[in-house]
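User: I'm preparing a small set of examples for a lab meeting where we compare how different chains pack in three dimensions. I only have the primary sequence for this one, and I'd like the structure in token form so I can line it up with the others. Please keep the answer compact; I'll paste it straight into my notes.
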Amino acid sequence: MKKIVIVTYGGGHINMLLPIIRQLTNESDIILCILALTTAGKVLEREGIEHLGFRDLLVGSDDEAVENGIRLLGPEAEFSPVGYDESVAYMGLSYLDMETRLGKIAAKELFQDKGRQAFYQLTVMEKFLTHQQPDLVIATNSPRCEKAALDAAGNLNIPSICLVDLFALQESEWICKNSYASKVCVLSKYVKNILVEKGRRAGDVVVTGNPAFDPLSTLDRKVLRQQTREKLGCSEYERIILWASSVEPAIHPFTNRKGDITLPERVRDELVRITNSSSKYRLVIRPHPSEQVPKLSGRKNVFLSTQEQSIEEVLTAADVVIVFASTVGIQAAYLEKPLINVRLSVFADDAPYDEMGLSAPVYKLEELGGVIDSLLKQKKPISGLLPPVGQATQKVVKEIKCMLGL
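Assistant: Understood. Below is the structure token output for the 406-residue chain.
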């Protein structure tokens, strides 16, 4: 029997690992130990998959960690997506780790400056892995605890794999180091080249794709497209523009680059103008889950796609897709949809779809209409720039078994 420890945060991180976890749970010669951080636990609960949380890492001597967690969190929130005891344990053990590594004064100053972004739970992960004694450690490219888990594995001479969900532009700072993780699984050759150019050994980096996108390969695109367009009242002669919106902050959280919080609204208004200027266009607006849903009543040929509708459904219906830096851009590329990325966003450099050859960039809002027209006339599908969709899970599992000698 071989034992694997998986450490994962929520959101895109657990979504990337979930297909891997599902397959590995069916392997008779593999034991999984999953440490689910923040909202990842809720995802695994829905799947009926056993997992640990930070609350399970507490021991009888961790009274100080619990006290720290309660102090940092304050009273229990009524609608917290993560249980209070789990949040207390996460904050408390993470802060205690900072005090252990840096000292109480330095830890206090760093936390006051960066909050939980300052966490790097190295001593917690070293203790956890020493107790578990795994044959392999797996995590994605998230900083903080996932990074700490892979660094701890290296310190303890345990083989490890880092799965990179998208472009690794910020994370390449540490993923490019040859001492970080035994293997790195990436989205595409573009991402591999970035890491290799920064010094990572080419043999350590494997192009697998992202398992979270594998279900796109099983879509009945033709049927789904027809059904969705019929719901919208669109004929095949009309062209649907999909605007996958997202929040624009005043300041980029990592680079401190200044953003324009009105940009999503200005893009929307320009797309409404473009749509109203031609009878052949229909606009579908897909707000980000964290965005306020816009009021579109009375706007001709403009439709709202809410979270109740799957993104795959609306993507198949679209004829052109527009994003800032959303992962919807990758999904659009896999579905061979013409893609536009608005380079005015503060996040433009975080998702270089145009540099990857997947999209047409727009640097001025008044250019949008012309670029949309041009892409729709070309009807040139994207091919060969991403690995074939639907194979990522099997490719990653193959690397895992190879490292375990199975």
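A couple of notes for your slides: The two ends are 10 Å apart (CA to CA). The first strand starts at residue 2 and ends at 8.

User: Perfect, thanks.
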